[in-house]
């Protein structure tokens, strides 16, 4: 069987399931982190979402602390903290605390998204224009670890100052240029190997500027991967997330996950069906042999250093079995 021969990591968004409280999703995330550690995954990251019915993870630094406390070896971080929502000094201090408590295990992944709606953005005190300040805020964030931001003389972010917390930038193809200029690792979505993805990765490597935190470019490919005994079983695991995405695109609300069998029997509008089918074309899925072959080809084409698996599913045991199978694919 072909193997990926590449480190695998996990991003868990604390997805809620219909009829279950948000607290259960958060506790599931902590349990999942322990299972991912036992399976040999390199990192376990959590995310930041606000006022989203289908996602319980709204405070990633708090949740990352709980995950780090419940594990002992796996690296823990964020995928990511949405920097437009926060002052860089506060983020530096929070991660300084995490790194001080769990030395050598903490990653700082940041993104540039703002709230999903105008109401959320007002509640957070940010506007869409905050995205335009992302690169400036990113530079300030790195500066707090290096000794202080020039705009604030004699101000120090303690205990962050002097610590080395790896910086990752979550990006689309345009954001790859920001990651390169910052000397940060790049986390980029899309596991089918489209030309735009390959071109963005190539551009990032060519434009990369070494920084105090990273001497060489580093590329993490992120996306949904499902592995099961049959290709159809693997596809079925992805159905709840695909429907949630389709529903959000057509109704403006990202809902909790529902059972796949109910979704497959549902009558959808043409618009819903179109979004649903497109969502299922994005992930890599199949048997262990099929996924190994597809991932090997993608890694060879992009030269990726790591794959971040973002799969969610309603059936928690089937989801965990998928991660077990994927770990075997990577183990050789």
Verbal overview:
The chain is α/β, with parallel strands linked by helices and 332 residues long. The chain has one domain: Alpha-Beta Barrel (TIM Barrel), CATH 3.20.20.30. Helices cover 46% and strands 13% of the residues. α1 packs parallel to α12, α6 runs parallel beside α7 and α8 crosses α10. The longest helix is centred in the last third of the chain and has 21 residues.
How does the SSE layout of this entry go?
Blueprint: E1 8-12, H1 22-39, E2 43-46, H2 60-70, E3 75-78, E4 81-82, H3 88-101, E5 108-111, H4 118-124, H5 134-146, E6 167-171, H6 175-182, E7 185-189, H7 195-207, E8 219-223, E9 225-227, H8 231-251, H9 260-264, H10 270-281, E10 284-286, H11 288-302, E11 306-309, H12 316-331
Parallel strand pairs: 1-2, 1-11, 2-3, 4-5, 5-6, 6-7, 7-8, 8-11, 9-10
């Amino acid at each position: 069987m072909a193997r990926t021969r590449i480190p695998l990591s996990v991003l868990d968004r604390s997805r809620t399931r219909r009829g279950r409280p948000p607290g259960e999703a958060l506790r599931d995330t902590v349990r999942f982190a322990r299972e991912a550690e036992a399976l040999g995954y390199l990192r376990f990251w959590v995310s930041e979402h606000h006022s989203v019915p289908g996602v319980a993870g709204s405070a990633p630094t708090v949740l990352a602390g709980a995950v780090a406390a419940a594990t002992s070896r796996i690296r823990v971080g964020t995928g990511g903290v949405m920097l437009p929502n926060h002052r860089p000094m506060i983020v530096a201090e929070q991660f300084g605390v995490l790194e001080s408590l769990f030395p050598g295990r903490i990653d700082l992944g940041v993104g540039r998204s703002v709230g999903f709606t105008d109401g959320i953005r007002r509640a957070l005190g940010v506007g869409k224009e905050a995205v335009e300040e992302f690169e400036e805020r990113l530079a300030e964030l790195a500066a707090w670890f290096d000794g202080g931001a020039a705009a604030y003389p004699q101000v120090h972010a303690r205990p962050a100052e002097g610590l080395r917390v790896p910086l990752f930038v979550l990006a689309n193809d345009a954001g790859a240029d920001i990651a390169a200029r910052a000397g940060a690792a790049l986390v980029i979505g899309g596991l089918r190997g489209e030309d735009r993805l390959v071109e963005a990765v190539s551009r990032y490597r060519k434009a990369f500027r070494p920084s105090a935190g990273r001497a060489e470019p580093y590329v993490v490919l992120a996306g949904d991967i499902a592995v099961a005994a049959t290709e159809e079983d693997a596809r079925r695991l992805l159905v709840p997330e695909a429907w949630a995405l389709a529903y959000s695109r057509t109704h403006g609300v990202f809902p909790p996950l529902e059972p796949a069998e109910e979704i497959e029997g549902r009558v959808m509008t043409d618009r819903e069906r179109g979004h649903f089918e497109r969502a299922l074309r994005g992930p890599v899925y199949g048997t262990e042999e099929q996924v190994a072959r597809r991932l090997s080809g993608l890694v060879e084409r992009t030269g990726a250093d790591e794959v971040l698996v973002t799969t969610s599913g309603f059936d928690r045991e089937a989801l965990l079995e998928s991660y077990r199978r994927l770990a075997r694919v990577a183990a050789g």
